[in-house]
């Protein structure tokens, strides 16, 4: 655990380099995402929307940006909670040392 915290502190922890999950849930979600993408693209092209794929990509990218913002905030909260729990656990020890 302390190695992870040190990596985060020194900037050695790069989320973009992490591997994608290798789970059935992830693979199913990916397939569903592709299916919906293709359905929407087909509908848009039927309505003569020539830049359908670009518009869909823009929507996906905007959602990814929002998800990243949320993930960062959740990560910050997790770190703060972890530090708070650590302080609670060490508080009785500090009291004993101070006496």
Low-pLDDT residue intervals, each spanning 5 or more residues: none
Q: How much strand content do the residues show?
A: under 5%
Number of strands: 0
Tell me the count of domains: 1
What's the quaternary structure here?
Answer: single chain
Average pLDDT rating: 81
Helix content: over 70%
Number of helices: 3
> What gap, in angstroms, lies between the N and C termini?
30 Å
Main β sheet profile: none
Overall body shape: elongated
> Can you write the helix and strand succession as a string?
HHH
Short summary:
This protein has 99 residues and is mainly α. The chain has helices at 2-9, 24-46, 52-98. The chain has one domain (2-98).
Q: Can you walk through the features of this model?
A:
The protein is an all-alpha fold. The protein has one domain. Helix content is 79%, strand content 0%. The longest helix has 47 residues. It is elongated and about 70 Å long. The model has no long low-confidence stretch (mean pLDDT 81).
Task: Give the tags.
elongated, 79% helix, 3 helices, 0% strand, 99 residues, mainly alpha
SSE order and pairing:
Layout: H1 2-9, H2 24-46, H3 52-98
């Amino acid at each position: 655990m302390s190695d992870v915290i040190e990596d985060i502190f020194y900037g050695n922890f790069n989320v973009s380099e992490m591997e994608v999950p290798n789970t059935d849930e992830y693979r199913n979600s990916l397939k569903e995402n592709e299916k919906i993408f293709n359905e929407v693209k087909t509908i848009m092209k039927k309505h003569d929307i020539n830049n359908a794929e670009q518009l869909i990509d823009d929507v996906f990218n905007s959602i990814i940006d929002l998800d990243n913002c949320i993930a960062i905030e959740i990560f910050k909260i997790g770190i703060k909670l972890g530090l708070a729990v650590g302080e609670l656990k060490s508080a009785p020890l500090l009291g004993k040392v101070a006496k």
